[in-house]
Design goal:
Layout (H helix, E strand, L loop, with lengths): L1 H7 L6 H7 L4 H12 L3 H19 L4 H7 L5 H12 L3 H21 L1
Length: 112
Amino acid sequence: MTDYIDKNYMETLTLETLANISHGSPYHLQRTFKKVKDLTPVEYIQQVRVEKAKAQLLSSNKPISEVGMSVGMPNTPYFITLFKKRIGQTPASYRQLQNQIKMEVFDHEKQH
């Protein structure tokens, strides 16, 4: 199930969809997944999407809304809220801070 989520995180993934793929009920999937991964399927999907978004924020200059859309979160305000809840800062401030750190490391290495 995690392999499927990892490959299809940008799609609309519901508990029902995942249950159909695994030939079980949503309730059974939820319970089993939580027992095995210590996360619900939805929490795992969110975790994967946020990690993919972090990578895109650092490797591109795509607008925040486009990053959200490309990781399966077309609702930009929700994407920003979820990202902030999980990472502790908005996607824009995360990108800015990480780029700042990169520049400081680069400047430091250039001096030595």
